[in-house]
Design goal:
Largest sheet of chain C: 5 strands, mixed
Strand order of the largest sheet of chain C: 8-5-6-10-9
Number of helices of chain C: 2
Helix content of chain C: 10-25%
Radius of gyration of chain C: 18 Å
CATH topology of the largest domain in chain A: FAD/NAD(P)-binding domain
CATH superfamily of the largest domain in chain C: CPE0013-like
Largest interface: A-B, 55 and 65 residues
Strand content of chain A: 35-45%
Chains: A alpha/beta (415), B alpha+beta (480), C alpha+beta (122)
Shape of chain C: elongated
Oligomer: heterotrimer
CATH class of the largest domain in chain A: Alpha Beta
Number of helices of chain A: 6
Radius of gyration of chain A: 22 Å
Number of strands of chain C: 10
Number of domains of chain A: 3
CATH superfamily of the largest domain in chain A: FAD/NAD(P)-binding domain
CATH architecture of the largest domain in chain A: 3-Layer(bba) Sandwich
């Protein structure tokens, strides 16, 4: 068995992990990044489309390019990477993580741990769609992996369920490679992906987007042969008589991501509903030496945001190692209109960076952060849609102490 | 002398293993790629205690006996059988009376340690049961297992003892000229045989027709299931929870699985005999499961579903197994109509079949000198080995340190071992290793397993299927 | 007179831009943009829309069967299928370097096909 020591151990070499590692290493501490895949970048490597990095690099990159840019920065910072290493367990008492790889078992002791494991896709089985159990049903990520990395087509004629960005991207990708994409169906009355992806991926190719429509049955003998879709009313109940049959051999699902937290759920707290790691705005978990960032906390729209949050975790971990402080933290609550928010606690005297997703579209509204009756932040009036996160930065000095008596509340106020 | 078993489900494979003890020529023909892909794959996976079966039936005769045989079977075949116990819940006095009758019937069937429990004791044992419960029939000998693992294990053990297996080969005719079994004809070959054991599950009636035997009165009864995520629901219950049975059968249950998940189901609908290939779930069925399961365990959260599926079981008009030598065709022996509790009864029926064959046909089977009753399962490293030993193992086998399935923590070594033992499809890997069986349902590992299968078997990715010949996964190359 | 509504795809902001055209299809007004590149995009979009293509090219002798590629700048949308045909029939020998030009001046557009990752030689 092999034993290593480091100041900071990062688990997961995606955008959040590399962001954290770069930030930490640039403060002069030693950093090891452990990754279960053979390369850095995580899911970016199969996202060969462009649109990444406009915030973080102020330049547009494809997924592999974005990954390469970050990885180059880590190389300049002298960060050690261990690829093909799989987390077996954490020894909380000795602040040690234990990994297996084809070289053997490795115990890595650290002063601070940063968990950046990303997310997994919600599987077909969780959707309770009745019908035959057949091949030809893929999550969008699997279809993307097969097409872009394995050089294999998932089928010849496809229907896509879910208008999240990866569903839209795959509609275009498959179309370009000669797969006939008959429609993209979306259960909600509004699309799940970015507006520009609706334009570029669907409208450019004349692929219909069917809103308030879902898959209600799959049929086939061995391989998928037919998909039945139905329209939904405002309460998401099926409207009888709207069934439509599509003869396709492929169903691609873009029905959401779930934070990957089961490997660590015994060690630090996760939200039982969202399954994300519970962190404060410094990305600290309920263990003072463990931090977490990226899609294992909440699902972000943009890899740029994930990278920023990774950097925050890296900074906080360094701060913890150097100063050992564990300042008080206070709850941040979701008020009206807020669907998802990136952190559950606010650490006193720190700048607050919030990422918020509304729970339904708003024509005209504003974002407000308050404590009891004191308004701390008030955004400009604008339109909000759930598929596009709002990012807000509030300086520490703008936040008065009134939240200590109760909590910070974020809400979307209709105008 | 040659015996041919038709059907590689739980009874077929256990009979093959039983006959493999003797110095006789035994073969088994199965139309699917793997053992246990029919009725055995999709059922409640319960080893029933045996209080439910009316005296005088084959069910009563073989269920409690089969239950007892499972401990030895588990030891010999290295399969998991966990005696988690079962509760039949009563929510009113009328139901309590039914429990009392079942209790008496259980005593008549020689079921040991049955008890009627009162509310407080039940909730002490299972705090998540609906608090409106008034009583339960508690059967500590009830257990859970993975039926497909038994089929796979029995196949491996029987093959090691000389039984010949023919998968992916379908019987299309049986020559029974002069009312005597002579030949079995498949889509690939023709075999001279003396005895045929009809263990063809849902298709036993078709096999009987081929042999010109009297018609077997079976029809399919479909049951739908919902499987919940083990990581988030495992602590909900620890034993099998039944409602009070009704005319409609045992009802919808809440069942812990060996893999620590929770299974809900089954529904129960009789189908026309022509629909025996149906394995589809329905929205009505899934709703019915949720509604009824919540009556037993209100805290069930259906959002934690990882999979829904359906299985057919063969039901007979007598609501009993259809067993024994044909009176019309010499050498044709039926082990059919394996409705519930077929899984529990199977080991006892396999023993009985072996004795009955000798008795009926005046045969004397001699034990093989080198018969080995043991088989080892594929070793699962995660959490089953000390770090020191694991490290040594990886030095010998680097693939034991390469993780393929992230959710269930399955290594490449385990996948390769499954392939060495005969797995050729994704489902065959899944049922042998539990890879792709976790919360992401193969999202992270399907492409890796496709690559490993392709590499180890030496055929292209396009040829790899999920379970049957039509279930191809990928459809050609992006760039030729 | 007609108005064309579009969502700007220059960045993830997704500004809603309106372009007004007169009866001769000449642009009379552009509104709703929040930056110059948005305005330029809108103008281009109504006259001759351009797109960046991202796809893959077959690699011979690499540790991966494909290398991801992109057009070095947006190409006319009307040429997308023609360009895809050229790409589908092309191949490159490993090793491939990031930013390597695999096809130059594709379909006479002045845009090159660039590798967006490296592929090692096996």
């Amino acid at each position: 068995m092999n034993r290593l020591e480091t100041d900071i151990l990062v688990i997961g070499a995606g955008a959040a992990g590399m962001g954290a590692a770069i930030c930490a290493a640039n403060s002069g501490v030693s950093v090891i990044v452990v990754e279960r895949n053979p390369d850095a970048g995580g899911i970016l490597n199969q996202c060969i489309h462009n649109g990444f990095g406009l915030h973080y690099f102020k330049k547009e990159f494809t997924g592999p390019e974005f990954a390469y840019q970050l990885y180059s920065k880590t190389k300049e910072s002298g960060i050690q990477f261990l690829f093909n290493h799989f987390l077996l367990q954490l020894d909380l008492k000795n602040k040690t993580a234990i990994f297996a790889s084809e070289e053997g078992i490795k115990l890595i002791a650290c002063k601070a741990l940063i968990y950046t494991a990303g997310a997994r896709e919600r599987p077909f089985g969780s959707l309770l769609i009745p019908g035959d159990r057949v091949s030809g049903i893929f999550t969008a990520g699997v279809a993307q992996r097969l097409t872009n990395i394995e050089n294999r087509l998932p089928g010849t004629k496809a229907l896509i369920l879910g208008s999240g960005d990866i569903g839209l991207i795959m509609a275009r990708r498959l179309t370009l490679e000669g797969v006939e994409v008959v429609a993209v169906c979306e259960r909600m009355p509004y699309p799940g992906g970015l507006a520009r992806n609706i334009d570029q991926c669907l409208k450019d190719f004349g692929i219909p987007l069917l809103l308030s429509t879902t898959v209600t049955e799959v049929r086939g003998d061995g391989r998928l042969r037919e998909v039945i879709t139905s329209s939904l009313d405002e309460n998401y109940n099926i409207i009888e008589g709207t069934q439509r049959s599509w003869s396709v051999d492929t169903l691609v699902l873009s029905v959401g991501l779930v934070p990957s937290t089961t490997p660590i759920m015994d060690y630090f707290s996760i939200d039982s509903k969202s399954r994300g790691v519970i962190v404060d705005n410094c990305m600290r978990t309920d263990k003072d030496w463990i931090f977490s960032a990226g899609n294992c906390v909440i699902i972000y729209d943009l890899v740029d945001y994930v990278t920023y949050q990774g950097e925050m975790a890296g900074r906080s971990a360094v701060n913890y190692i150097k100063n050992g402080n564990n300042p008080a933290r206070y709850p941040i609550k979701k008020g009206n209109g807020v669907g998802v928010i990136n952190c559950s606690y606010y650490v006193e005297n720190s700048d607050l960076e919030l990422y918020i997703r509304v729970n339904k579209p708003k024509e005209k509204a504003k974002l407000v952060v308050r404590s009891d009756n004191t308004i701390i932040y008030e955004g400009k009036p604008s339109a909000f849609i759930p598929s596009e996160m709002v990012r807000v930065k509030i300086k520490a000095e703008k936040i008065d102490d009134s939240f200590k008596k109760s909590s910070l509340v974020t809400e979307i106020i209709d105008l | 002398m040659r015996i041919c078993i038709i059907g590689g489900g739980i009874v077929g494979t256990l009979i093959a293993r039983q006959l493999g003890r003797f110095d006789i020529e035994v073969m088994l023909i199965e139309k699917e790629y793997d053992a246990g892909l029919g009725v055995s794959k999709a059922n409640s996976a319960i080893i029933h205690a045996g209080y439910d079966d009316e005296p005088g039936t084959y069910r009563a005769r073989f269920c409690s006996k089969g239950n007892m045989l499972y401990d030895e079977l588990a030891r010999q075949l290295d399969i998991e059988v966990v005696r988690v116990g079962s509760h039949v819940l009563a929510f009113n006095n009328e139901q309590r009376n039914v429990l009392n009758k079942l209790y008496q019937q259980g005593l008549n069937n020689n079921i040991r340690n049955l008890r009627i429990l009162e509310r407080d004791e039940i909730l002490d044992m299972e705090p998540n049961i609906n608090p409106d419960v008034v009583a339960s029939l508690y059967a500590p000998s009830a257990g859970i297992t993975e039926p497909w693992q038994i089929c796979i294990a029995a196949t491996e053990n029987a093959a090691a003892n000389g039984v010949e297996f023919h998968f992916n080969e379908e019987v299309i005719d049986i020559d029974a000229q002069g009312n005597k079994i002579r030949r079995v004809i498949t889509d690939k070959h023709e075999y001279q045989v003396d005895y045929v054991i009809n263990a063809a599950g849902l298709y036993a009636d078709r096999i009987a027709n081929m042999a010109k035997d009297v018609a077997i009165p079976i029809h399919p009864r479909i049951g739908e299931y919902i499987l919940l995520n083990k990581f988030t629901t495992a602590d909900l219950i620890h034993s099998i929870i039944f409602p009070t049975p009704s005319k409609m059968g045992k009802g919808i249950l809440v069942i812990p699985t060996v893999d620590k998940g929770i299974l809900l189901g089954p529904t129960s609908s009789d189908l026309n005999y022509r629909l025996k290939d149906l394995r589809a779930t329905s929205s009505e069925g899934l709703e019915q499961i949720v509604e009824n399961a919540k009556k037993l365990i209100p805290g069930i959260d259906i959002k934690e579903t990882v999979k829904t599926f359906a299985g057919c079981r063969p039901e007979t008009s007598q609501k009993d197994f259809y067993l024994g030598a044909s009176r019309k065709i010499y050498g044709f022996f039926n082990v059919a109509g394996m409705r519930s509790p077929g899984l529990t009864a199977a080991p006892a029926i396999a023993q009985w079949t072996c004795e009955e064959l000798q008795k009926t046909y005046n045969l004397k089977f001699n034990l093989k000198k080198d018969y080995n009753p043991y088989r080892k399962k594929i070793f699962h490293y995660y959490n089953n080995i000390s770090l020191e030993d694991y490290d040594k193992e990886i030095q010998r086998y680097p693939e034991a340190g390469r993780f393929v399935c992230v959710c269930n923590k399955i290594t490449e070594k385990e996948v390769i071992e499954a392939i060495k033992r005969g797995a050729t499809t994704l489902d065959a890997i899944k049922f042998r290793t539990r890879a792709m069986f976790g919360e992401c349902q193969g999202g992270f590992c399907t492409h890796k397993i496709l690559q490993i299968l392709s590499r180890e078997l030496g055929f292209p990715l396009e040829k790899i299927v999920y379970n049957n010949a039509k279930s191809y996964v990928v459809d050609g190359k992006v760039r030729k | 007179m007609k108005d064309v509504d579009m969502v700007c795809i220059q960045c993830p902001m997704g500004c809603k831009i309106k372009v007004s055209l007169d009866d001769d299809e000449k642009v009379t007004e552009i509104s709703g943009y929040t930056c110059k590149s948005g305005k330029d995009y809108a103008l281009q979009e109504v006259t001759d829309p351009h797109r960046v293509i991202t796809t893959s090219i077959k690699v011979i002798g690499g540790n991966l069967p494909l290398v991801s590629v992109k057009t070095s700048k947006p190409v006319p949308k009307r040429l997308v299928l023609e360009i895809m045909d050229i790409i589908k029939n092309s191949q490159v020998h490993a090793p491939v370097e990031l930013n390597q030009i695999i096809i130059s001046n594709i379909a006479g557009t002045g845009s090159d096909i660039l590798a967006t990752k490296s592929v090692e030689k096996l």
